[in-house]
Amino acid sequence: xxxxxxxxxxxxxxxxxxxxxxxxxxxxxxxxxxxxxxxxxxxxxxxxxxxxxxxxxxxxxxxxxxxxxxxxxxxxxxxxxxxxxxxxxxxxxxxxxxxxxxxxxxxxxxxxxxxxxxxxxxxxxxxxxxxxxxxxxxxxxxxxxxxxxxxxxxxxxxxxxxxxxxxxxxxxxxxxxxxxxxxxxxxxxxxxxxxxxxxxxxxxxxxxxxxxxxxxxxxxxxxxxxxxxxxxxxxxxxxxxxxxxxxxxxxx
Length: 252
Hints:
This protein has helices at residues 5-14, 20-29, 34-46, 152-155, 171-187, 236-242, 248-251; strands at 89-90, 102-105, 111-114, 118-124, 132-138, 158-164, 191-199, 202-211, 215-221, 225-231. By secondary structure, the protein is α+β, with helices and mostly antiparallel strands. It has an eight-stranded antiparallel sheet with strand order 1-4-5-6-10-9-8-7, with helices on both faces. A two-stranded antiparallel ribbon has the order 2-3. Strand 9 and strand 10 form a beta hairpin. Helix 1 (5-14) crosses helix 3. Mean pLDDT is 80; it is low at 52-77 and 79-98.
């Protein structure tokens, strides 16, 4: 039996708020295997958490390390996906053109073009506001659906995490990024395919995970930022959003 105290505490805190399968998927992305999850779930259900004397600050709790980190730490270099189920606040409605498409501008100056009736819901993972997470979804989507990545495909949700890049924006950086992503997927024992991609002037790596949890991921190197896209599958919505990415610093 493998019981990880920080996972048990997290499950006790959230089992009443979210379905076990949603928590299983989220923790799997953070490096918690299905076997470890089952052991920790049994322990969390066996001994209920004691009432806290005062409300905890979620930022002071133990942090789980990813093996993509994520939002994900890959080989100690990539991003970390948030395990916090905090509900983001909707962003202001962007300007639309005659086709119904709209543009979304991120905090670091990057831009993507959104399909008709899509919006971006943004939050920051840190107090310094260096790591921005945006969920692109159909207008009116309940933000609580963002917690279960198994819903991303059916609901057409695309997640983007933007953070300072640990890799140089050159061919050497692209090689390092590809190696880090391969290590991450291999460590999880997943079946996947990986390829290099080019988004305008930006190089990157795309991963299609076939099993056990099918999904598509893209890691794009900007001049100063690393862009991590995540969705349930590569479809028209995915291509429309990912291929429209522009990095203000790289375009100069």
